Structure formats: C-alpha cells, structure tokens
Amino acid sequence: MSKSLMISLTQGASDPDRATVAFVVANASVASDVETVVFLSTEGVRWSQKGAADGVHETGFKALKELMADFAEFGGKIYVCSPCFKKRGLDENNLIDGAAIVGGAKAVEFLTNGASCLSY
Amino acid sequence: MGAQVHLRVPERAVSGAAALETSGAVAAQPLPTICSTCGAALCGRQVVIAKILGWSVPRCLDCAAADLGSSPDALCSLVGGYLSRRECYRRDWMAAATCGEDERAPCCPGRVESAEQPPEWFRAELFHPGVGLTADDADQFVDAEESGCGDLMVLLLRSIRKTPPGGILGIRALDPGAPADIPSWCRLTGHELLREGEDDGVYYIRRRAD
User: Fold this and answer.
1) For residue B49, which of B35, B31, B38 has the smallest C-alpha distance?
2) Residue A28 belongs to what domain range?
C-alpha cells in the first residue's frame, strides 16, 4: 500500500475553490502519516509566492493561507515547477515555507517511487 | 474428529512495526483471497490464522485442519487462545475483512461473537475494548464539532500528540465523512480505534505506545 501522495494543482487565482480543496486534502494526507507533496505547475505556481493566498477564504473551509501553513507545519512539501515559474517571472526569494523549485525529474522520481497522485 | 492436535504455534518475534505492516497487508487484502490448496475464497480472518500458523500462503480452515489431522473448530480454538494473548495478532484479527454473509467458516465473527456461548478465548474486553468507555476514561477529550476532511485530520494529529503514549483520546466528530475518515486515519497512523462514533459521534482512540 502506497504511503506517499502527490497532489497536482494547476489552477491559480481564477479558481480559488480548487486550490483550497487541494490543500484540504493535502492536509488530510499529511496528518495521516502519508508523505505528501503538492506539485504546483502552470497557473498553480502562483500560490508559491508569499501573499498570493491572502484573502482567499472559501465558504466551509479554513482560509487558504492557514491551510498552507498547516501543511508546512506537518512536514508537507511543495514542489514548484521550474519552467512554469520562470515563464511567469516569479520571485525565487519570495517562496512560501515548504516550497522548492524543481524540474520534472524530481516530480517523476517521487511518483515512480510508488506515490499515488490526485489532480486539481 | 481426527487426532488431537499437538501444534506448537510459533513464538515468533514480531515487532510492533511488523505487526502493523501485517495489519496493513491483511486489512488491505481485497476479497476474495483464495486457499492455496483448494481455491476456496477466504475471509481476512482465515488469512490471519494462516499467518499465526507460520504459513507464507493462506489456506482455508478445512484444508488446514485436514493437513493437521484436526477440525476447523479445534484449529480456531487453538489459534484463538494464542491470538487473545498477542496484541499484534489480535489487532490484525479485528482489522481483517470478514466473510460477509458466508457464515460457514468457524472463525466467522457472526458465529463467534453472537453465539450464546462464545468460545473461551473470545473476551469482549480484548476484542471490543471500547465497550463502556466514557469521557472520564479519556486522557484527553476534544470536540471537533462539524470539522471534516483535512481540518479533522489536523485536529486529530494535534490532539493525539498531546495524549500520552498508550493513553486514550476521545473525540466528538459530527461531520458526515468522519465515520469513514477516522477509522482510515487510525489504520494509516497505527493508533488503535477503540470505539466508533455510533449515534453520539464520539470516538475513542488509543495512542500507540511508541
């Protein structure tokens, strides 16, 4: 049975609901002793920047900023797709806690080591 | 029926971690698993019996008993006495998938647990340790109210960390997903679910000792 999970998030500020649910599930996973990575790519990389989640608070859920802080607190990792990051001119010095810029190989390695994957 | 069995059940050294790994394998094993001798479908508890007897492949109670010159009932009784003294195997037994409607196997919980006279080795305080627990028995009690999914799991993790190893956490959780999520969380993390929510939404969980 796999004890690792990758959650792929490709939606940015145009779909805060999807980003919120992705982190809610990520927290369910990391709080259940499952090694959990959130992989941000395409527009999802925007969540890697400090301040991007400010003001995002979907009905029925904790604020996104708080969800992301919980995820980092419990050891969840955030992989940020390097080409998507560079394409959007984002700031490497403004990454949120737990985030690391990676290439495709890192994500593929995590998956091929037995992780399951869920996409938002 | 057959000769009396003088079977030495292996006193194997199984670590807690190995028992949990076994538990995961047994609990996750999809039904039907089949007997390696006759191909009959097996319930999870027959798989636990095979593991206790030291077999690397499972066999049904009929084939196992025939091999040993015994009967399914006698074999269950022998193994049952052993597993009632071994917490790791007892947890495997309780977590294992059951037969469903097929009540022919002697180990089937429907026969054992609802019998007028359950076998000597089946003691409610061992196999249903959550019976009779109240908030006073808990080292810590939290009210999750309507929290669910990730928020509930985060609260569980924070709360269990405040509970002493081997201690009991009580949690009231009313989210409709909680009856599925809390047992899943316990299986994933290795903490023992003593009591499920039932009508009051109150669960009791024993923090693992390590």
Assistant:
1) B35
2) 4-119
Give tens-digit pLDDT for B51-101: 888 888 888 888 888 888 888 888 888 888 888 788 788 877 777 766 655
- For residue B11, tell me if it sits in a domain: no
The whole-angstrom distance between A77's CA and the closest CA on chain B is: 16
Both tokens of B56, joined, read 């690397």
Residue B34: partners with Cβ closer than 8 Å, 6 or more residues away: B40, B41, B42
Nearest by CB: B157 against A1, A23, A31: A31
* Chain A residues with CB-CB distance to B152 below 8 A: 28
| B116/B155 same-domain check | no
Distance from CA of A89 to the nearest CA of B (A): 32
- Residues B12-50 have pLDDT tens digits of 333 332 333 333 343 444 445 788 888 887 877 888 888
Is B81 a domain residue? yes
Q: pLDDT tens digit string along A67-90?
A: 999 999 999 999 999 999 999 999
CB neighbours of residue B46 within 10 Å? 27
Residue of B nearest to A22 (CA): B150
Chain B interface includes A23 (CB < 8 A) = yes
User: Cβ distance B141 to B206 under 8 Å?
Assistant: no
pTM as predicted: 0.64
**pLDDT, position A30:** 96
Q: Which domain covers residue B20, as residue numbers?
A: 16-127
Q: Any residues with CB less than 8 A from the CB of A101 and at least 6 apart, and which?
A: A80, A81, A82, A85, A92, A95
**CA B172 – CA B202 distance, rounded (Å):** 4
Closest CA to B98 of B110, B82, B83, B84: B110
- Kindly report, residue by residue over B156-208, the tens digit of the pLDDT: 999 999 999 999 999 999 988 888 888 889 988 989 898 888 789 999 999 99
Contact A24 B149 (CB under 8 A): yes
B151 vs A contacts (CB less than 8 Å): 24, 27, 61-62
ipTM for this model = 0.75
Measured between CA atoms, the residue of chain A closest to residue B161 is A31
